[in-house]
Amino acid sequence: MKVEVQTTDRPGSDFMMDVLKSLDFEYVCSNPGSSFRALHESVINYGGNRSPEFITCCHEESATAMAHGYAKIEGKPLLVFAHGTVGLQHASMAIYNAYCDRVPVYVVLGNIMDATRRRSFVDWAHSVQDAAAMVREYIKWDDAPLSLPHFAESAVRAYKIAMTPPFMPVVIVADADTQESPIPDGTDLRIPKLTLTAPPQGDSGAVAEAARLLVAAESPVILAGRAARTPAGLKLLVELAETLQTAVIDLRQRMNFPSRHPLNQTMRGRAAITNADVILGLEVEDFYGAVHSIGQQIEYRTRPITRPGAKLMSITAGDLFLRSNYQDFQRFQEVDLAIAADAEATLPVLIEAVKRQLTDDRKRAFQDRGAKLAASHQEAQEKARADAAYAWDASPISTARLCAELWAQIKNEDWSFVSESAFVSGWPQRLWDFSKHYHHIGGQGGYGIGYGAPAAVGAALANRKHGRLTVNIQCDGDMMYAPGILWTAAHHRIPLLNIMHNNRGYHQEVMQVQIMANQHNRGVDRARIGTTIDDPPVDYAKLAQSMGMYGEGPVSDPKDLAAALRRGIEVVKRGEPAMIDVVTQPR
Amino acid sequence: MHKLILILFVGALLHAEDADNGKKLYTTVGCYECHGRVGQGGSAGPRLAPRPVPLQALVAYVRHPSGAMPPYTSKLVTDAQLVDIHAFLASIPPPAKDIPLLNQ
Predict the structure, then answer these.
(1) pTM, whole model, 2 decimals?
(2) Which of A70, A98, A303, A504 is the 20 to 30 Å CA partner of A219?
(3) CA–CA separation, A162 vs A171, rounded Å?
């Protein structure tokens, strides 16, 4: 009688694990799914649930956004496991955000390629001919390897591609049968060596020309988009700015430039652009929007805000890799010098080129300019403080008060602010002292809402081993997409201070519908229909508590805020997440 | 045309201002959305209070905004209602001076 082989101690998924371990992933964020059950089991048993450790997520969008937030702190990707069908469908918006935000995320999809190996109707419903097709327009590379050696090669290649600027998500499809079956005898199990590509540096002639224009300029401006990829980028940008004594405008998509540096002119950005004779854009996504005024009335009107003859230059890896379908490449901006290269990698040679061209005359002129810029910075800072005083005692609580109270309690900690600040009128950057790379990580990328809560948890996961106090000002609309992320934070003991910016609505949309009602000349008192989250009001403290997280609020009297924040911070310092629900002004 | 505007203004000015009604209107017609509930301003609209621009300038801007603000015709908000909104904005007290938390 033939004895059926019922077990194996060498499943293909173990080798896949070896490959993934060689890429040094700390965690795999995933909502469990049968098409990658073997990989899951290999992570927790064969891999000992260490590097990667399995992080249980309640939604694939949360898993992917966690990886997005993590990568911006840690500078390297996390793994995401998902079904090639329903899982990827859930994950797709978060992949799009990471793509727009130039962030590496490493997605492994389960799929049963061989139709004769599908065991149930569910297997059929969860199988797909070309899994990555759905997201191919907004990832950098994908493959569906047919064998284990093929998996090893493609997995290493995918990592290298994701980590070459412009960074982007990649997808590898792991065939379920290859995962689950014994490794065939005689398989070549070599894992290729990973060598990361040196990022592309600007052409030397073009860099020299950029330096010449910058040195000769009377009022140059540097626009920084996603310029600082790493802590080094921030230091380099400071060095370039100080060498030239030039104005810097931080578009806040990364932590590009210290908020209290005297050359930081972000708070008077428009005035600086209007006055500039040379503008250098570093990884600027929307250069057109930065140098134009675009009218919002019914008639479409746009006009440049730059002065005639101003020279525009750009350094961006965005010029090296573009897709056609999704339009995140923005309106075409004419420039005088375009350098297709990674800005951070180009800064050292640009700084050298600038230094070579300096003369004593120019240095003296730079000093005067620097003194004027420092005075403007000081003035803008004082204005920000004066502006923050308005509505100080208002209830709902003003976003300025919220940020000032928060700053008082975190400024002596090793803090990391991991949320978008546009929704709170930019108060953090206007009031706080941002100086380190992890003090800010920018926003969603594709403005896909639902990013905030999970990206903050991912960033906090990265910050945990560094002992940083991670702070998230959490919008209520964003929170409501997939609140299960709170459970993930509680379950994995991820220390994170969540402070609800609870304006009880999708406030951006309240304003958008208001604009339409006005333009259509009717019903201006009805913009709240379909845009607010207030009847019934959501109790975010209870929501957090229901998931095992410390929750407090709603706090609507500003006098109660400081004490609530203090209690929240105590919890976070003990190594757990906390949620303080603050009822706030709209913006 | 100018005459008509003048008549409207005179009519509006004759209306006895009512700051409480103005406060309600300021919310219902959506000014608060962009300017904040007490006119403090923010990323979506500038500060309006305290010390708002003169009534005439407020009416003129609301009717024909030039930037990102949407227009309000007199069908949507009457001149008399704008008088009340202006009175509400004018009634908002100035902020305290020297708030320690704003010097850190």
Answers:
(1) 0.97
(2) A303
(3) 10
Nearest to A514 among B30, B96, B97 (CB): B30
- Residue to mutate among A252, A297, A561, with most B CBs inside 10 A, is A297
CA end-to-end distance (rounded Å), chain B: 53
Name which CATH class applies to B2-94. Answer: mainly alpha
Domain A12-180 of CATH type 3.40.50.1820: no
Residue A83 in tokens: 């079904």
Contacts with B75 from chain A: Cβ below 8 Å: 521
Sign of CA dihedral A440, A441, A442, A448: negative
pLDDT single digits (tens) A292-341: 999 999 999 999 999 999 999 999 999 999 999 999 999 999 999 999 99
Q: CATH number of A389-583: 3.50.50.60, 3.40.30.10, 3.40.50.970, 3.30.420.10? A: 3.40.50.970
Digit-coded pLDDT (tens) for A113-154: 999 999 999 999 999 999 999 999 999 999 999 999 999 999
Topology match between the domains A204-373 and A389-583: yes
3-state secondary structure of A535: coil
Rounded (to 5) percent helix, strand, coil in chain A: 45, 15, 40
Contact A200, A165 (CB under 8 A): yes
Q: What is the ipTM of this complex?
A: 0.94
- Give me the residue spans of the domains in chain A: 12-180, 204-373, 389-583
Q: Domain limits of chain B?
A: 2-94
- Asked if residue A228 lies in contact with residue A256, where contact means CB atoms within 8 angstroms, the answer is yes
Contact (CB<8Å) B36/A295: no
On chain A, the residues whose CB falls within 8 A of the CB of B70 are: 296-297, 514-515, 518-519
